[in-house]
Task: inverse folding
């Protein structure tokens, strides 16, 4: 399973449909993975993305300490892992091992990426404004990679099958692409 | 075509799938509508959502002046209007009239909502952190409404058919809901 780097200026297209993502972080020897349905690209120049992380989350602490994180885009076939990771804290659990998520070494940051994901975006914290009970972690994109065959200018949705969250226990994926003429 | 108010605490579920939205604003006698693919809910308590708006956009000026905006969720059948609104500035054009978008009076803000949309969320600016070439307008949700029959705890995707943007001229909608057991 090989991943190819994609241009930083197009990296936001990995998450532009608004898919739910797995955020990985690492501080010291502790790795963690959490789910974030609240994410968006936020700047072209410089290339930035934003992720909303609850202030009480363990990942919040790890990102604050390390100043880095990776946004991984899981496919629908990882939905049970997505659900588990979104409903359990990694403070005292190794969710990678429990969900059989294999780590991939990232190129620019110490936090790991997740094998089997559609792609992943490696970020350094650019700013972290507070918004109610969450922090908006704005990440400067340092590197982005997509799984071989899944990204050519935009995602190949038929093959990629990203996860989208409606709320509660309800999820969906996207269907065929429509091109505006 | 009737709209029902939905609880503020569940309003974020109108945009939780990451759909592309139409942001409406008004300052003085000027109304405008623009497209934003970059949006996310950002807090439960208080209920907040965030929208990324390019600093050069006309809507940016109107929101700065008025401190208010409405996030409208268009269905796929409005895709040509979405495309037009995303590729033309409203500074010297009336996009409502050109795209045949009918305004609905919002309940709590002066900016109009758009008839035919799946639902809309009325916001007052809570904060507006800068992030590269965009501003993150964080909006406190003052009221939210969904079209009759399209929202019951979560969106009814089969009927709602929200628009999702991949990048460039490529769009898609979501498919059947999957419930995690």
Result:
């Amino acid at each position: 399973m090989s991943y190819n780097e994609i241009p930083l200026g197009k990296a936001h297209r990995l998450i532009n449909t608004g898919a739910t993502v797995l955020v990985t972080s690492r501080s010291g020897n502790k790795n963690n993975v959490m789910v974030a349905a609240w994410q968006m690209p936020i700047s072209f120049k410089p290339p930035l993305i934003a992720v909303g992380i609850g202030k009480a989350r363990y990942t919040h602490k790890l990102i604050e300490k390390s100043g880095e994180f990776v946004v991984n885009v899981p496919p629908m076939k990882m939905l049970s892992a997505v659900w588990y990771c979104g409903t359990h804290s990694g403070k005292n659990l190794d969710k990678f091992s429990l969900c059989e998520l294999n780590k991939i070494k990232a190129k620019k940051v110490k936090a790991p990426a997740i094998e089997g994901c559609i792609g992943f975006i490696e970020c350094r914290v650019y700013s972290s404004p507070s918004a109610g009970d969450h922090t908006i972690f704005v990440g400067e994109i340092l590197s982005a990679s997509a799984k071989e065959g899944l990204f050519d200018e935009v995602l190949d949705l038929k093959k990629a099958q990203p996860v989208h969250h409606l709320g509660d226990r309800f999820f969906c994926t996207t269907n065929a692409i429509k091109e505006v003429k």
Residues 3 and 147 of chain B are 4 Å apart (CA to CA). Chain B has one domain: 3-172.
